[in-house]
Design a protein that fits this description.
By secondary structure, this protein is mainly β. Helix content is 13%, strand content 37%. It has a five-stranded antiparallel beta sheet, with no helix packed on it. Strands 6-7-8-9 form a four-stranded antiparallel beta sheet, with no helix packed on it. The termini are far apart. Bound molecules: cytidine-5'-triphosphate and zinc ion.
């Protein structure tokens, strides 16, 4: 109980909306960018460098009155795969979702091949994903170069 009260003091509970919890602290601003939260007109609160048993330091984002589609949220799979999505209605957590890796990633990362067309023309990058035991591989749609995200994120 005291744990819950501590949390609520750090970042207040919300009535309705989405809470993204267990975001690695150093990925907070990247998550904000990928989810394009700057375009949302409603209330958003966040905290970072909060203590987490799992991650050491974590960040949390609370977006009032906003519910994301799975494919929107899954765009953060590369940078915050362990994030937890809590759906809040009338102050209650009515659903918890986990992030799943999309089959395709558009934008977000650059192709590691300097010769790739995406590094020379204004073309959005496009990769198919492959989950290995300890990392995610991205295969470029245009040049087929495989990039290990461990090296780039
Ligand atoms: N939360 C919130 N507003 C509410 C209810 C919950 O902002 N009205 C937040 C909590 O602060 C917490 C997250 O939603 O960060 C999940 O809430 P809850 O499931 O109650 O917390 P935990 O049991 O700690 O969740 P977990 O261990 O799954 O992260
Ligand atoms: Zn490429």
């Amino acid at each position: 109980m005291s744990k819950l009260i501590d949390k609520q003091l750090q970042v207040s509970a919300i009535e309705n909306g989405t809470v993204l919890d267990h975001i690695p602290a150093d990925k907070l601003f990247k998550v904000i960018e990928i989810l394009e939260l700057e375009k949302i007109g409603g209330q958003i609160t966040f905290g970072t460098n909060l203590d987490s048993k799992l991650l050491g330091k974590k960040a949390i984002i609370k977006i009032s009155d906003k519910y994301f589609k799975d494919d929107e949220i899954n765009r953060i799979a590369l940078i915050a795969p362990q994030a937890k999505i809590n759906i809040i209605r009338d102050y209650e957590v009515i659903e918890k979702r986990v992030i799943s890796l999309p089959e395709e990633i558009r934008g977000i990362v650059k192709c590691a091949n300097p010769m790739c067309v995406t590094n020379h023309q204004r073309i959005e990058t496009r990769f198919t994903t492959l989950q290995t035991e300890d990392s995610v591989l991205l295969k470029c749609h245009f040049c087929e170069k495989v990039t290990n995200t461990k090296n780039i994120i």
